[in-house]
Amino acid sequence: MKARHASSEVLVIGAGPAGLYAAFYAGLRGLSVRLIDAQPEPGGQLSALYPDKVVYDVPGLPATRAAEIVDALVRQLAPFRPDYRLGEVARDLRRTPDGWTVGTDQAEYPAGAVIVAAGLGALLPREVRLPGLHPDVRTALPDPAAFSGRRVLVVGGVPQATRAALTLAGTGAAVTLTHRRALFRGSPEQLEQVQTLRNSGALQVHAPAELDRLDERGAWLKLGGDRQHVPADTVLVFNGFLPDLGPLQGWPLNWQGEYLPADEQQMTALPGVFVAGDVSLSGGDFKLISVGLALAALAANAAAHFVRPELKIRPGHSSDRRLPPH
Ligand SMILES: Cc1cc2nc3c(=O)[nH]c(=O)nc-3n(C[C@H](O)[C@H](O)[C@H](O)COP(=O)(O)OP(=O)(O)OC[C@H]3O[C@@H](n4cnc5c(N)ncnc54)[C@H](O)[C@@H]3O)c2cc1C
Predict the structure, then answer these.
(1) Which residue of 84, 94, 110, 207 has the fewest C-beta atoms within 10 A of its own C-beta?
(2) Does residue 14's CB lie within 6 angstroms of at least one atom of ligand 1?
């Protein structure tokens, strides 16, 4: 039986930049807001695909790492106490007398209005196929503290692998980090920390190394011409993420390929269902953060008026308001 949660006035599907900013504007207009995302953390493509890269074209943020842009968006939204539902995939949409209900595998989320900010689709872990068998292979790190004192082999060169290795080493796990290439991705600070821990012996690093085979007790790595056994209680594999629009494409929203058409207020073919960000046809091929944020402002303000018709669509100037401190 799925849990049925209390209704929010606005439900945002996707906690990428467009979804976070739509949620911010809904909060600014005084509405309760909930966000659903398949990812375990907010940020969409910025967190999943390129947290370590420097972005140059977000207004007012010269040369800022993607992870820091996400951090700023999350902090800007925080005063409005959004209800994040992370690690859940929105799969169905049902009309109700009070609006809409969105279903995930875990729960039902009723809302007055829905904003689809799904980007390229639900960012889901790429399939991992490793030779051999090990009793504890994972593709995400739910609770680092649970690994204290355990031997963990972290496999992968993506930023999530670097971050997991550092987090686990910091919580007392015996960590080995390995990748088939010599380079790991991460912020300069993270990469420096890897080097420091490696030099001190607090982190074992094998790269480039090929994971040859798992066994009951760990994994065999191919290092140049040698084979080396790394004992591990847990093998944590990070293989990046792939977007999947499939869960939403059955919704009757007049999909045009990977895009959703909308009116000038970003409302789709369904009343009370709005769209913002990369998935919006209004932005066309301009898959940019700045364009997604603008569409999010339009969608959220139109959603505010839809849910509470006494609110004007145009929000007025935030500089005329007194907001909670951040
Ligand atoms: C490598 C790279 C570099 C880039 N560099 C720049 C740059 O320099 N400047 C720039 O402006 N743009 C850049 N972009 C593009 C930018 O990242 C996107 O335009 C932006 O992320 C779009 O934001 P969004 O919120 O619309 O979608 P996304 O960031 O894709 O977020 C959508 C979120 O919705 C979630 N989601 C989708 N469907 C579901 C579902 N059914 N259930 C639950 N969750 C769901 C996804 O998991 C995802 O987290 C870059 C993109 C990439 C890949």
Answers:
(1) 94
(2) yes
